[in-house]
Amino acid sequence: MKAVVLAAGEGTRMRPLTSKIPKVMLPIANKPMLEHIVDAAIKAGIEGFVFITGYNEERISEYFGSGEERGITIDYVHQKEQLGTANAIGCAKEYVKDKFIVLNGDVLVSSSHIRRMTERKEDAVITVKHVENPSDFGVIETSGDNVSRIIEKPENPPTDLANAGIYLFRESIFELIENTPLSPREEYEITDSLQMLIDSDANVGYEVLEEEWIDIGRPWDLLDANAVLLEEMKPVRSGLVEPNATLIGDVSVGEGTLIRNGAYIIGPVVIGKDCDIGPNCFIRPSTTIGNRVHIGNAVEVKNCIIMDDTKIGHLTYIGDSIIGRKCNFGAGTKVANLRHDGRNIKVNIKGKRTDSGRRKLGVIMGDDVHTGINTSINVGTVMKSGSFTKPGEVVR
Q: What EC identifiers does the entry list (predicted)?
C-alpha cells in the first residue's frame, strides 16, 4: 500500500516563515514536519509514497530524494494549481493501485492510527476526531458503522466527529474526483467526492482518532507540535559539553556542537549540529535549536523554535517565538511574550488580526532578519524576511 501525501501548498497563513520554503518543510523538533509524517507512515508499514508538490517543491525533493536511504520509494507529482484536495489527490491517479492512504503534509498523526487505517476493508474510510467545537470543522453524520453524510461547518452539528483529513481510498475514487463540481469556495473538495461515493451506496466507514492529532495551520501551532514531539524524543548527546555546563532532563546535543561552561539547559531541548552555546546562558524547556546556531553570553531562550544559522547575541531574551534562518540578534534585544492584562495575544495573519488563543506569544520572525542592539519587540509581532531594526528601536 502507498501513501499519497499532500504537500503542494505554500502555507500563506504561515508567512513569513514560508517565504522561501514550503510549509511542510518547516522544522519541528529539528526535522521538517513532513519527515515526522513519513517516519510515522514507515513505522506503520508503508513503503511507497507519492508526494503531491507545488510551491518551492525542489526543497522537498532535495531533502528526501528517491527515498532509497530510508528504504522506501518516493514519486513526485507536480500540482500545477492548488485547486482543492480532490484535485490534489487526483494527481496521484497513475501512481497508486487498489487501496491507498491519503495524508496531509501538515497534519501530524501517529503510526498506530495509520496502521489501523491500512487494515480497514471498506470502499473508503475517513479519520475523525471527537472535538469540543465541531461547527468549526467538517462533521460526519453516521449510520451504524458507516458515514451517511458529511457537512461542512454546520451551525447545528449532528455529532462531535470532525473530519481529520486522513483517508483510505480505493481506485474507484478517481472517477468520482473527475466528476466532482467546483465548490462555493471555487475548489474541488474531496468531501464532495466522498459524499458522491456515499450516495452511490458504497461502504464508507470511519476511524476515530484517539491519539494526538496536530493540525498545523498557523505559526504558533508549530510551538504546540514542538512541545509534544520533544516530550516523546530520547536524548542523544554527540557534541562536547564542558564540565561546568548543566544539562537537566532530556537534552539532545548534535555532532560538532559545543556547550560552554555556565550554560544551564533544562529539557526537553534539542540542539542541532555545529552550534556554539554559551557561556552562561539559560535555555528553558520545549526549545528546539537548529544547526550552526550561536547562543551568546547571558542569553535566555524559552519555548522557542530557532532555525539554522541564526546568531543570538549576548544579553538577549526570546520567549515563545519562532525564529527563521540566518537571523542575527543585536546585543540586548528583548522579546516580550505576555500582555500586562493577561489576555490572549493577537497576531496579523494575512492582513487580519487573529486571536492566537495563547496568553504567551513572542515574535514570528522570517529569514535573514537583523536587529540592532537594545531592540525591543512587542508581543505577537510578525517580522518579514529580510527586515531589520535600528539600535534601540521598539517593534510592534
A: 2.3.1.157, 2.7.7.23
Full-model pTM: 0.91
Q: Residue with C-alpha cell 498523526? A: 109
Residue 63's domain comprises: 2-217
Active-site residues, by number, are 314
Nearest partner of 161 among 174, 145, 173, judged by Cα? 145
What is the radius of gyration, based on Cα positions, of the chain? 22
Euclidean distance between CA atoms 27 and 260, whole angstroms: 25
- Give residue-wise pLDDT tens across range 115-143: 999 999 989 999 998 888 877 778 888 88
- The verdict on residue 33 lying in a domain is yes
Q: What does the pLDDT look like over 334-376, one tens digit per residue?
A: 999 999 998 999 999 988 999 999 999 999 999 999 999 999 9
Is the Cα dihedral 85, 91, 95, 97 positive or negative?
positive
Q: What is the CATH number of the domain that holds 226?
A: 2.160.10.10
Q: Is the dihedral of CA 339, 343, 344, 346 positive or negative?
A: negative
The domain that holds 39 is classified in CATH as 3.90.550.10
Grid coordinates standing for 257? 556542537
Question: Do 208 and 136 fall into the same domain?
Answer: yes
Would you tell me how many other CB atoms lie within 10 Å of the CB of residue 210? Answer: 12
Distance, in Å, from the CA atom of 380 to the CA atom of 386, rounded to the nearest integer, reads 18
Number of domains in the chain: 2
Short-list 318, 262, 261, CA closest to 287: 318
312 found inside a domain: yes
